[in-house]
Write a structure and sequence with these properties.
The protein contains 7 helices and 5 strands. With 253 residues, it is an alpha+beta fold.
Length: 253
């Protein structure tokens, strides 16, 4: 029996084609005395078999097209699911984590390790919006994120938790190390060219808190936020470390 020609994919109906060839050979070899009886019956059978093969091939082609379309649809659905998940967890203006995602992330980290939380707020941001309009305010927010992204360690996570308020999550960072990161961020923002119409600079105030494993977002954020407002009341454009500490897991009743 001959196989498929070299370089061509095998025909899934090869066995059926061989049977059809054998039937045609038998039909051609029918003796003249039996031509009218068995020849007619065999000829009808060949025609029916050919129609069946053509219909089966058509159904297979339709099935292949349907499978391809389903695969393409599944790929598109996966892309849409990933896009929706990204939108649910990220701030649309800056692309960093949103508040809900930051809370979940911090609590997950606290479930297994200590971390530091930096909270920062743009100084006099209302003046920027009121004086130059919200589009300029949006560009300032995007510039702040650009500063954060160039300075924070690779293990850090950046989030926008309010209009002009941001957090930096620093897993396995102590108070002194996280305070140094916050100072680097403050200097980066102070030196950044925001190109405000009046030529003024933009600064931010920072509050820093460290918490051991077993803590939670609300407690850590509360202490960092208190430190932030100490920095605001102290004249802004400065970093303050939380004076209170969070209890470790073994001390939580």
């Amino acid at each position: 029996m001959l196989g498929a020609p070299s370089g061509h994919p095998p025909d899934i109906f090869d066995a059926e084609n061989q049977t059809l060839l054998a039937a045609r050979a038998a039909h051609a070899a029918c003796p003249s005395s039996a031509q009218e009886a068995c020849g007619q019956a065999l000829g009808d059978l060949i025609l029916a078999y050919e129609r069946l093969l053509r219909e089966t091939r058509r159904l297979v082609r339709r099935s292949d097209r349907a499978e391809l379309e389903m695969n393409q649809m599944n790929t598109r659905l996966q892309d849409l699911a990933a896009e929706l998940e990204h939108r649910a967890n990220h701030d649309p203006l800056t692309g960093v984590l949103n508040r809900a995602a930051v809370i979940e992330l911090v609590n997950q980290h606290f479930g297994r390790e200590d971390l530091a939380l930096i909270v920062l707020d743009i100084d006099h941001f209302k003046r920027i919006n009121d004086s130059f309009g919200h589009p300029m305010g949006d560009r300032v927010i995007q510039g702040i994120v650009a500063c954060l992204q160039t300075v924070v360690p690779t293990t850090a996570h950046i989030g926008r938790v309010g209009g002009e308020e941001f957090t930096v999550v620093l897993p396995r960072h102590g108070g002194a190390a996280s305070e140094r990161v916050a100072q680097d961020l403050r200097h980066a923002i102070e030196a950044y060219a925001f190109d405000l119409p009046d030529g003024s600079s933009v600064t931010a105030s920072f509050g820093v808190c460290w918490g051991p494993a077993g803590s939670d977002f609300d407690s850590a954020y509360g202490l960092a936020d208190e430190a932030l407002y100490v920095a605001k009341r102290g004249g802004r454009n400065q970093v303050r470390l939380a004076t209170n500490t969070l209890p470790s897991a073994e001390h939580v009743v």
